[in-house]
Write a structure and sequence with these properties.
Oligomer: single chain
Number of helices: 2
Strand order of the largest sheet: 1-2
Shape: elongated
Structural class: alpha+beta
Strand content: 5-15%
Order of helices and strands: EEHH
Helix content: 55-70%
Length: 75
């Protein structure tokens, strides 16, 4: 598919719909994995598990904050 144009912060930028679709598919898969993790969590988790959860939380927070800031800026 060809890149498409969209307005962002008063300027026209390009995006690739295939990239957007892939990202949305990954987000949906992550939500499923989070439900699985929550279902199988115990009171006492191994240190490496806690470390990975902390790292994932940091990454997701960075992306969520960036996307929220970008959307707030374009209004």
């Amino acid at each position: 598919m060809k890149a498409r144009k969209y307005k962002h912060g008063g300027k026209v930028e390009m995006y690739n719909p295939e990239t957007m679709e892939m990202a949305m598919t990954q987000v949906t898969a992550m939500m499923d994995k989070l439900k699985r993790i929550q279902k199988h969590m115990t009171v006492d988790v191994d240190a490496w598990v806690a470390s990975k959860i902390t790292l994932a939380d940091d990454y997701l927070t960075s992306v969520a904050d960036y996307l929220q800031y970008e959307n707030d800026e374009s209004k």
